[in-house]
Amino acid sequence: MKxxxxxxxxxxxxxxxxxxxxxxxxxxxxGQQLTERYQGKNPLFISILSGAFVFASDLIRAFDSHCEIxxxxxxxxxxxxxxxxxxxxxxxxxxxxxxxxxxxxxIVDTGRTxxxxxxxxxxxxxxxxxxxxxxxxxxxxxxxxxxxxVCFDIxxxxxxxxxxDYDDLGRNLAGIWQVLE
Length: 181
Ligand code: IMP
Known about the structure:
Elements: E1 7-9, E2 12-18, H1 20-37, E3 44-49, H2 53-61, E4 68-78, E5 81-90, E6 100-108, H3 112-122, E7 128-136, E8 149-153, E9 159-160, E10 176-179
Bound molecules: inosinic acid.
């Protein structure tokens, strides 16, 4: 497939929005900044599944110091629209008390997922919490969530790729693709 082609997933067409190279450049910059901030602190990266697993795996490899990674599965999406409820499907097994936490999201859309999850994390008395997202849709924001590091702000249009899916397809695309309206 040529990089400029559009792709079809079910009923939707997608066109390229952000290249693999542009993503990697941003990941490296944020990885360096996190390395400086967390030197010697053994932070715990927490990747929100499923979407953030690709971003998290690149981000921890751009982090040049000791760190740990954990995963939590939350879900609030069905198809292309947020369904409203946020539920913890699979929790973290680690003790978070006095840990430096780096929460890794694929995309902050309404902010509901992160808002809910941050409340949960704060109740575990960590030493600090920092949030990192690959994408953010500022126009879609409904919940005021602190996001410390953002690779890209994008329009309020549905995207797939780099871990993000449309009904479970598209996660394996190396770049980000935007729906053609
Ligand atoms: P929020 O709770 O509304 O901020 O939505 C966050 C979650 O919804 C993300 O972690 C994604 O799993 C999903 N999501 C939001 N926007 C998109 C999109 O454009 N494409 C694919 N998934 C999305």
